[in-house]
Every structure is written in structure tokens, then in C-alpha cells.
Amino acid sequence: MKKTLLASALLLFSGYSFAAQYATSSHVVDKQHKRLIWADEFNSGTRPNPKDWTYETKFVRNQEDQYYTTSSKNSRIENGNLVIEALKETVPNADYDPNGTQWHQQRKDAYYTSASLTTAGKHSWVHKRVEVRAKLPQGRGTWPAIWLLGDNISTVGWPACGEIDIMEYVGYNPHFAYSTTHKSDRNQTLGNSIPGVIQDNKLEDGFHTYATEWDDNEVRFYFDGKLYHTQQRNGEDWPFDKPMYLILNLAIGGGWGGQQGIDDSIFPQKFLIDYVRVYDLK
């Protein structure tokens, strides 16, 4: 999710020939030999289960424009889906400090609200398959993501903790979605990230399945059950042998999502998640 420097590289990759690799039928996933170990189908209640999910709040990262809340206006369960909704509204910034030196302190108000849900402190996994069926929001300024971070981020920091971006999408570049990994010796700060790209003219029209599998040798990315990108182990650093937790969020603006501004006429926008399923690879 820290894509400030990576964004320009992704735009260059977006027209490259590997963008449609997911269409290779020989890469269909065989899940018959994978055991479901955890899932949230979002079929009961009106709010995400607090036994499974926690919230990020306020301004968090990437100088994004949304203010994350725990309000049901921004996240709830409806019709068998987790709804993450971004709204155009003005709210005061609880961390505002006119003398503050950090970007999140210098904003007196926020002009958009949204939600970011995580399994941090609830569930984390090593060497699994994480699969999410979701419908993307649309419009310039939207930046939804499905991603994993290492549990040890509070002690070793980013990118040493490791990051797996299962799906990222920026609304100003429709019909494309992206995946990649970040670690100490390969990340966008160093300018050597290797993104995978989905290109689909109907990407925004309905639900699609985004998944990753990872083990001690590689990370694999799937779109609608078909492999489209693989990142193999390289270098000495491989943080993906330690537990990782899941994040589902809808950002607005920021270092990547806001590169071409925010279209206020698009709001409200909803990021819909039908289910999250985690499989053992054995």
C-alpha cells in the first residue's frame, strides 16, 4: 500500500504483454487438495464480527484523504456482503495540531470518510491461500486494496515485516488491477518492485475473485481462479515465513490513488466483499 514511487512504474507496465496472463487456462487452481481453515461469508449480523475484525482509524498512511472510522455508515454487512463505503463529508481531525510536523497532524478537517478492516491481533497465517471475492468501486480518486502485512511490523517496521498486495486498484486507471510484494531488499522505495497486472474491460462490472498463495519459495497471485503472476524467492530476505494478517480497505486520494485528483461527483462509493476464505496448502 505504500505506492507513492511505484505508481509511475505500474502505469508503464499496464500496457505490457503480461497483463493478460491470467487468461491461461492451464493455470486453473485445483482447490480439491486445499483445506478451508477459516472464512467469513458475511451472512449474519449487521456489523463485522469483532472476534475476527478490528479497525484502523483516523488518517493512517500515504497522505490519503479519507478519515477511517468505525461507523456503520462506512462499514457494515448488507445482503451477504461486507460493505466498505466511502463518503464525501467533512469531519474534524482528532489529531489536528497547528504546530504539528506530521502530515496527519496538519489537517484540521477531513473531507472524506471510509473504513479499513484488519484481522490484526485476531487471525494471521503463514504459507496459506487467501481468497477474497469482491466488487470494486469506481471513479477517480478511489483506491481499494486487499493485502497482507507481517504481524511483526510494530517491532521490525516496514518493509522488513513483509507485505503482499493481493489486489490494488486506482480509479483513474480503470480496467486494471495490480499485485506485488514488498520486503527489505525489494520494494517501491528501492524502485525494484515487480508488479503483476490484471487487465479486464469488465473488471468493475461485477464480483471477481482475488487470491494469493505463498510458501517458502514463492508468492503466487490468482484472478478468478487462474494464475497470472508469480514472485519467486530472491536474495537473502524472505519475510513471508512469518505470520501475516489481512487488511481490506477503501482509500481515497493519497500518493497513488490521488495522482489525478478526486472526482467529488462519484460519491458515495462502495467496496463490496462477498467472502474471505483461507485455505491450508497441504
Walk me through what this model shows.
The protein is mainly beta. It has one domain: Jelly Rolls (Sandwich), CATH 2.60.120.200. 6% of the residues lie in helices and 40% in strands. It is built from three helices and 17 strands. The strands form two sheets. Strands 1, 3, 4, 5, 6, 8, 13, 14, 15 and 17 form a ten-stranded mixed β-sheet that branches. The protein has a seven-stranded antiparallel β-sheet with strand order 2-7-16-9-10-11-12. The longest helix is centred in the N-terminal third of the chain and has 8 residues, at 6-13. The relative contact order is 0.26. Residues 1-28 have low confidence and may be disordered. Residues 1-19 form the signal peptide. Belongs to the glycosyl hydrolase 16 family. Residues 16-282 form the GH16 domain. This is Beta-glucanase. It holds the Pfam family Glyco_hydro_16.
Give a short summary of the structure:
One of its GO terms (biological process) is carbohydrate metabolic process. The protein is mainly beta.
